[in-house]
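Hi C.,

You asked whether I'd gotten around to modeling the 352-residue construct. I have! Everything is below, sequence then structure, no commentary in between.
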Amino acid sequence: MRNAVLGTFMCGASELPCAECHPSCLNCDVTPGICQSCRAGADAVAFPHGQACRCIDGKGTDKVNANLYHEVCSPCSDSCATCFIGNDDYNCYTCKVSTTELVKQSRDLGSCSCRDGYQPGRIPVLESDCVPCVPAGCPACVGPTAQDCFSSVAVAEFARLSMTIPLPETTATHICYCIPLDLPTCASNVLVEIMGSLADDGNGVYQPQVSQCYTLLNAMWPYITYWFTEIFPTFDPAIVYRPKSFSALIVKLWILEFTPSELVNNPDWKPIVTAFNQPAAAYANYLAWIGTTPGYTLDGTSTHPMPAALAASGSISVYIIPFLSGSKVCDTSGCSMQAQCALIMPGLECST
């Protein structure tokens, strides 16, 4: 006869050696994978090799103590109905309300975003945040007025991206990501036709509203998507923390700010363009960093300076995200990129 004991099981009168229960079990019997009861906050569910425990719906593994066995459970974030990691907006399995949908970022996990036809009140999206776009029938929007409506869902996704990461519409050299500050008058007349009346700072520098930049973006979207297909026909980044569409939007920003001519004809861009047309597995060897001398590696060993235009961009901290999408450079034992890994995330060290 076998008796269950706290954290172990034992073979009673046979005096066979005891073995540890599955780490998620409080008590187990007969086989380490068969739980009689679970640690606080968990329920027993079937695992492929027996029965163990997982966090109940509405809770996920504690982010601080995250591991495969869910020894500590914490509530899911406000936007998630079910989750893998608690208190994390980017590790949802399902979303809380019908007006939101899961945007996958790795396997079955992702973040909850307002469905097309609804606009987010804030990010991360909470239960009461998704309200219908205006006017009725608008396919996608980023705000509560008709000016915030977009005929292209892709443009709205771009605009929503601007709400979550720092994308300066106006920089020291450009407005609306791509329009030079020293724009000739004839060209500015075209902008006014598209965007409406533009305010300036008193020195002849336009100061467009964010909604006006989105209007321009809407007009330019066919141009952007055409060149994206031409320059990056096999773009297929790895999915780790962000969905592929996120990296694709960043690359489209490159096209917008640096122009197709720069990406195609400048030899400094050629290795990057080539690398970003490689299969997803190749991204394991990519890495980019900022610091005083921004650079990148495509093999995890040799380093290269960033193209000058990208290095000088006010959005470089965002623009390097595709290099990191599937990177395992800092996970490699004894990697040669220790200093660069530390630049990406303070305190980050290569695996040993």
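If it helps when you're writing up: The longest helix spans residues 210-231.

Thanks,
B.
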